[in-house]
Amino acid sequence: MKPALRLFALVLPLTAGLLSGSAHPAWAETVLHKGNGAEAQTLDPTHSSIIAEQFILKDLFEGLTVFDAAGKITSGTAESWSMSSDGLVYTFKLRPNAKWSNGDPVTAGDFVFSFRRLEDPKEAASFANLFYPIKNAEAVNSGKAGVDTLGVKALDDRTLEITLERPTPYLLQLLANQSALPVHQASVEKLKADFVKPGNLISNGAYTLTENLANDHVTLVKNQRYWDAANVRIDKVISYPIDDQAAAQRRFLAGELDMTFEFAADQLKFLKEKVGDQVHVSPNLTNEYYAFDTRTPPFNDARVRRALSMAVDRDFLAEKIFSGTRVGSYSFVPSGLPGYTSAKPDFAQMPQLDREDAAKDLLKQAGFGEGGKPLKLTIRFGTNDNNRRIATAVADMWKALGVEVSLLNSDSKSHYAFLRDGGTFEVARAAWVADYADAENFLALPMTANKAFNYSHFASPDYDALVAKSYTEADPAKRLKILENAEALLARDQPVAPLLSNADLWLVSNKVKGWQDNAANEHLTRFLSKEE
Known about the structure:
Layout: H1 3-20, E1 31-35, H2 51-60, E2 65-67, E3 73-75, E4 78-83, E5 89-94, H3 108-119, H4 137-141, E6 152-156, E7 159-163, H5 171-174, H6 185-191, E8 207-213, E9 217-222, E10 236-240, H7 245-253, E11 259-261, H8 268-275, E12 279-292, H9 302-310, H10 314-321, E13 327-328, H11 352-365, E14 376-382, H12 385-399, E15 404-410, H13 412-420, E16 427-433, H14 440-443, H15 461-470, H16 476-493, E17 496-508, E18 512-513, E19 529-530
Parallel strand pairs: 1-10, 1-11, 14-15, 14-16
Antiparallel strand pairs: 2-3, 4-5, 5-7, 6-7, 8-9, 9-10, 11-17, 12-16, 12-17, 13-17, 18-19
Helix pairs in contact: 9-11, 15-16
């Protein structure tokens, strides 16, 4: 722990009132100290894509809908909405008292501007494809149509109309996504990329930005112009981007952090004995997997990918590495989605020893191992203790096949930037947290057209065609069957090796009130309070 950081954490609450402009004495402020899990790459909603950003952005900005404390969709800036009988047109009524932090009213035009900006190909927004259900979104994002053709329209200052390409049962969940958060048009147009800086950033959520020091902390203070400010009970949130889970744990136990995201799973027993119900383990819709770069020989050979995936003992990872806080997984879509049966590869039911023998045979067929050249590879992963433990364990499993494995780690920000920017690799750790509870949210990732999140660069016309067909199928049961067939192709070709279905691991002080575990991992500060 850096001494300067510790000193700041202890001293800042005494001066907090001077920064926030709060009318009450500084020593009366309620300050929440939060371990954020990783460094935010951006505070621009249009360009956000990771959960560490979500935790901060959803305190700063508010979309049409939000997740409440229980992880259920409820009204946000839109106080109400209606849907046409064919499910293609949604009409949202905005709250009359919704304001930006500078006092400007939040209007339907702000959402039109923000959605157009999200789909504008010049922005190259990572999550633009999530919103392709909106009329003309894909055409706009691919440069085939102008942004003014996007199916988002302001009927008046308080009325927003969204027209869809097809019925989208998860739209209200999608609109709560971090990339659907509105931005202040005038400041974006005037300040360009600098609009996100402290002193510049104008937000419409429960908090405003006062500090953003890279690799140190982000400070938010209560937005007095927020429509529900009277019910926001925490005055200040200080988020610390701590990749080192052991350091975050120590700071929590020392009382320096009120809550922190992600602790080392092997600490579960110790922590439960130490702090009891302050340990929170919440199963979620997340998959953790290794992506194979299918552009890089020999990982363009499905036999090599299948062999490596076969040899991974998922049960060992779940039980020995994560003490049962995660579940071994063979399917890319996590289990638990209503009406959907996740597809698994044919080797999923084989005993582990039989799988290892079959894996050696496949590698031999591909020219590696006994009688051939050794397979050498590097596993890339984002720095934290859990990722390192997985990589070390998997490396040992692959060494049993005669594979020579090296490990390469970098901070989470750099790791995901590398993958999204198309850097070449051999094997890379990744994970996806559901933006909405639908199999499509996972199966859209490995599509050829998904340049941002198809980390393996998988290119299968048959797979693409099946996912595309699901978009035009109106019958819900038939649609899910089509998606199941698409996942079966993914399971066969193994461009990704699913490893684990996850749980969110939090340490939350008993001083923090209003916390509810939920599968969406949504915990807006506006729903929390803190007893000093």
